[in-house]
User: Fold this.
Amino acid sequence: MNNQSDHTALHDHLLPLSAYFKVYAWLMAFLLLTVGAAYVDLGRLNFPVTMLIAVIKGVMIMLIFMHVKYSHKLVWIFAGASFLWLLLLIVFSLNDYFTRDLLHIPGK
Assistant:
């Protein structure tokens, strides 16, 4: 058996190089959008807007560059579980950060 048939048997979802360049261009556009959002004062919406942009970029990387889009359902479950874990970490960290003033500890 040659290496080409072994490789295509394992990866039947080979993407053309142009698809990677398109995703790269979108990621660079979202990077510019993130930098632009840092200079615009949106008040309380700054954090949600930048987190939304970051989640979109993360999903694009996960689906295309990590080939989750073409993987088995078990891979989808573990990828979704990792995003759920990240969401839990962010929510509990923000819960701690936003409730620190409720303790009324002098000098803190």
The mean pLDDT is 83. The chain has one domain: 15-101.
